[in-house]
Amino acid sequence: AAAFRAPIPSPKSLQPNGASEEALRGEIKELKQKDLALDQEIAQLLSEGYSLEELDKHISLLHEYNEIKDAGQMLLGKLAVIRGVTTKQLYPEYDLELSD
User: Fold this and answer.
1) 94 vs 7, 35, 88, 97, CA distance in Å?
2) How many CA atoms lie within 13 A of 9 on its CB side?
3) Between the CA of residue 84 and those of 57, 78, 98, what are the distances in Å?
4) Domain segments of the chain: what residues?
């Protein structure tokens, strides 16, 4: 009997060890650069008079807004399916802009 072969190659079999290690090093470098950029952005905001509490509140409100917007988009999508139209066609009915 033939040995079992997975229909999809495992990630390890796609790259030799050195290549995946190199990719991880690249990702680490990129994340360190993003971390530094975010630290600089926070320092800039603090120097402009914002407090960390304000920034945390703002981030929290943005998350809440995005969750509400996602729920609205989902409902519009379901309504569009029921009516047999595109979501875009529903926007004028609800006074929405395409950028909303």
Assistant:
1) 48, 40, 11, 9
2) 6
3) 40, 10, 19
4) 14-50, 51-100
Please answer whether residues 90 and 79 qualify as being in contact, where contact means their C-beta atoms are separated by less than 8 angstroms: yes
pTM over 0.85: no
Decide: 79 and 85 in contact? Cβ < 8 Å: no
For 17, 55, 56, 78, the CA distances from 61, given in Å and listed in that order, are: 43, 10, 9, 26
* Non-local CB neighbours of 87 within 8 Å, separated by 6+ positions: 73, 76, 77, 80
Position 39, amino acid: D
Q: What are 28-35's contacts with CB under 8 Å, separation 24+?
A: none
Segment 63-84, tens digit of pLDDT: 999 999 999 999 999 999 999 9
